[in-house]
């Protein structure tokens, strides 16, 4: 069995070089006679791994010193709730810009902890684009503005960072972090579940402007308080050491690839090829998203006749193309083309799509 081209939305493909290195090091990490999974997180060896991973992430994203970087757990979903717990006090409101499934979830999970104001939404347009900036009803007294730069299911992406004035901007970057350089200083808080562009599931990377750690939030257990995690170097309790290790290997791999500017170019080329294939198919394949809001990471598409879906999935898998089934919320197909998916994989998919259309005319 060889590895197939993997278009999974998440947990998603990891760089093969990272997996091979982890395999080589699995039993005996750094000559210490044990696996990295079998060592104390408070030991010298693991501490140096943790520091290196943070330093590499800071270098890749050019994270300013007045931001803390946390390696947490709970998935992005837990942080949908934990963010308002930390950033909003009793009676505060927060603005949510909702452009798809995950933004909706973020808003609904926040609702027990903050008064949620849906300040902009493209729900009425079935999340096929972004709500025009003029239509947003931002409240300058909001505790923060939350948005989802890339909606993994609907395949909708912001291609610039919204201007929201002085209110801290909070971004769920689960499915676009590290896909291109970003200006971290424009954000109050960035968070991302690891299982797309960072490493395995079970790890969350959270980048927070340090002054926001001083917000009192509400009474809560220490384990929920970001300031406690920051004060304890993300080792308030036992962290996901394996996930942290693999994230560190991915950061090193990204640096070897030429950093995020190089990833941006690669990701652009992959997305262009796939959208060109869809748009050039004379309606055989369709992507429902307005061109200006199309995602570079997740490309949903339908076939002109959904009766062909089962054949498409069966034949694509036989051709070595894995996990193209779309999310049930939108149906059809979806190709997720994160950092670890090479251009070669997208070329193979584009070739298969052309061939399938010919054969099933
Ligand atoms: N936000 C986005 C943008 C996602 O794509 C996902 C998962 N696919 C989540 C949040 C939820 O992540 P988790 O399952 O790690 O809680």
Short structural description:
This protein has 361 residues and is an alpha/beta fold. Helix content is 34%, strand content 16%. It has nine helices and 14 strands.
Supply the CATH superfamily name of the largest domain.
Answer: Type I PLP-dependent aspartate aminotransferase-like (Major domain)
- How would a textbook summarize the main sheet? 7 strands, mixed
CATH class of the largest domain: Alpha Beta
Count of helical stretches: 9
Please state the second-level CATH architecture of the largest domain.
3-Layer(aba) Sandwich
Please state how the strands of the largest beta sheet are arranged side by side: 2-10-9-8-5-3-4
Overview of the molecule:
34% of the residues lie in helices and 16% in strands. The chain has 361 residues and is α/β, with parallel strands linked by helices. The chain folds into 2 domains: 17-256, 3-Layer(aba) Sandwich (Aspartate Aminotransferase, domain 2); 259-360, Aspartate Aminotransferase, domain 1, CATH 3.90.1150. The strands form 4 sheets. A 7-stranded mixed β-sheet has the order 2-10-9-8-5-3-4. β3, α4 and β4 form a beta-alpha-beta unit. α7 runs parallel beside α9 (343-359). The two termini are 32 Å apart. The structure holds 4'-deoxy-4'-aminopyridoxal-5'-phosphate.
């Amino acid at each position: 069995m060889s590895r197939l081209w993997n278009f999974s939305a998440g947990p998603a493909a990891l760089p093969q070089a990272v997996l091979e290195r982890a395999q080589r090091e699995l039993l005996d990490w750094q000559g210490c006679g044990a696996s990295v999974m079998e060592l104390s997180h408070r030991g010298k060896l693991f501490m140096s791994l943790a520091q290196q991973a943070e330093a590499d992430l800071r270098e890749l994203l050019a994270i300013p010193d007045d931001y803390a970087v946390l390696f947490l757990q709970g998935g992005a979903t837990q942080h949908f709730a934990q963010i308002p717990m930390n950033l909003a006090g009793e009676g505060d409101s927060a603005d949510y810009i909702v452009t798809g499934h995950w933004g909706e979830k973020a808003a609904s999970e926040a609702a027990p902890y903050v008064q949620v104001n849906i300040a902009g939404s493209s729900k009425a347009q079935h999340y096929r684009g972004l709500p025009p900036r003029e239509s947003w009803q931002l409240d300058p007294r909001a505790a923060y503005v939350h948005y989802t730069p890339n909606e993994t299911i609907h395949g909708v992406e912001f291609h610039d960072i919204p201007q929201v004035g002085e209110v801290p901007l909070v971004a769920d970057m689960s499915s676009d972090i590290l896909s291109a350089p970003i200006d971290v200083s424009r954000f109050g808080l960035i968070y991302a579940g690891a299982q797309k562009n960072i490493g395995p599931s079970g790890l969350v990377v959270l980048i927070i402007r340090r002054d926001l750690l001083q917000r009192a939030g509400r009474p809560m257990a220490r384990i929920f308080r970001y300031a406690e995690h920051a004060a304890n170097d993300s080792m308030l309790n036992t962290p996901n050491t394996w996930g942290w290790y693999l994230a560190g290997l991915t950061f090193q791999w990204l640096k070897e690839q030429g950093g995020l500017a190089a990833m941006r170019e690669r990701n652009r080329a992959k997305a262009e090829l796939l959208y060109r294939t869809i748009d050039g198919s004379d309606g055989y394949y369709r992507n429902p998203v307005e061109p200006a809001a199309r995602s570079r990471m997740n490309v949903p598409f339908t076939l002109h006749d959904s009766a062909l879906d089962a054949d498409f999935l069966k034949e694509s898998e036989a051709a070595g193309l894995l996990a193209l089934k779309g999310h049930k919320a939108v149906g059809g197909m979806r190709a997720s083309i994160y950092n670890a998916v090479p251009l070669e994989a997208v070329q193979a998919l584009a070739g298969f799509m052309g061939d399938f259309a010919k054969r099933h005319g």
